[in-house]
UniProtKB/TrEMBL annotation:
<dbReference type="GO" id="GO:0015774">
    <property type="term" value="P:polysaccharide transport"/>
</dbReference>
<feature type="transmembrane region" description="Helical">
    <location>
        <begin position="97"/>
        <end position="119"/>
    </location>
</feature>
<feature type="transmembrane region" description="Helical">
    <location>
        <begin position="20"/>
        <end position="41"/>
    </location>
</feature>
<dbReference type="GO" id="GO:0015920">
    <property type="term" value="P:lipopolysaccharide transport"/>
</dbReference>
<dbReference type="GO" id="GO:0140359">
    <property type="term" value="F:ABC-type transporter activity"/>
</dbReference>
<keyword id="KW-0812">Transmembrane</keyword>
<keyword id="KW-0625">Polysaccharide transport</keyword>
<dbReference type="InterPro" id="IPR047817">
    <property type="entry name" value="ABC2_TM_bact-type"/>
</dbReference>
<feature type="domain" description="ABC transmembrane type-2">
    <location>
        <begin position="17"/>
        <end position="238"/>
    </location>
</feature>
<keyword id="KW-1003">Cell membrane</keyword>
<dbReference type="GO" id="GO:0043190">
    <property type="term" value="C:ATP-binding cassette (ABC) transporter complex"/>
</dbReference>
<comment type="similarity">
    <text>Belongs to the ABC-2 integral membrane protein family.</text>
</comment>
<feature type="transmembrane region" description="Helical">
    <location>
        <begin position="53"/>
        <end position="77"/>
    </location>
</feature>
<dbReference type="InterPro" id="IPR000412">
    <property type="entry name" value="ABC_2_transport"/>
</dbReference>
<keyword id="KW-1133">Transmembrane helix</keyword>
<dbReference type="InterPro" id="IPR013525">
    <property type="entry name" value="ABC2_TM"/>
</dbReference>
<protein>
    <recommendedName>
        <fullName>Transport permease protein</fullName>
    </recommendedName>
</protein>
Amino acid sequence: MALMLREMATSYGRSPGGYLWAVLEPAAGIALLSLVFTAMFNTPPLGISFPMFYATGMLPFIMFSDVQGKVASSLLYSKQLLAYPTVTYLDAILARFLLNIMTQILVAYLIFSFCIMAFETRVTLDLVVIIQAFSLAALLGLGIGTLNAYMFIRFPIAQRAWSILMRPMFLVSCIFMLFETLPHPYKDWLWYNPLVHVIGLMRRGFYGTYDATYASPLFVIAVSLVCMAAGLLLLRRQYQDLLTR
C-alpha cells in the first residue's frame, strides 16, 4: 500500500489534472480515430458506432500496454527502496500492477459508459466475457512486464528494442479491423499475437452477433504464465546482483 500511494503521488499527483489525463488520452485517441474513419467509411466493421468499435479495441490494448510498461520499469522505479530488506521485488511489481489495473478499469468504465450514453451503439453487454478480456489483458501485461523487469536491467538495450517492437503492435492487434477480414497468410501470422485474442474477446462481450471463434483464452494464459515464470525465476536468482547495476 505504501508503494501504491507513492506511485499515485509521483505519477498522477505532480502533473496538473492528475488522473484526468489518464481518461483524456485514450478518449482523445478514440475520438480522432472515429473522426478519420467516419469520413472514409459509412459504418464501422462491426456495429453502427465508430467510437464504440474503436473503444473495444483500444482500451484492452492500452490496459496491456500500460500495465506491461509500469511493471517492466517497477524495479528501476523503486531501486533505492529495494535496498531495504523489508521491500522485495515482488512488492514493487505487485504495487504497480494493482494500481494500474484499477486505474485502467476506471478509465474503461468511464469511456464505455460515455459511448453508450452519448451514441447509438446497439450493443448487448456480456459482462462475463468483458471481465475475462480485461483479466487476460492484465495478466498478459503482468507476465510480459515481469520478464521485461529483468531484461531491462540485465540488458539495457532490451528496453530500446522492446520500444521499437511495440510501435507496430498498435497496427497489428486488430484494433482497426476484424481478424476475419485479414487475408492469408497474414491472418495465420497474426493469430500468434496474444492481443488479437484479447481484443476479439472484448468485442464478443459487446456485440452479441460476433463470435470471435479464433480467440483462445488458453493461448493468452499460456504466454502470460510462461513469461511470468521465466521473469520470476530470473529475478529470484539474480535479484541482488541487479541492484548493484
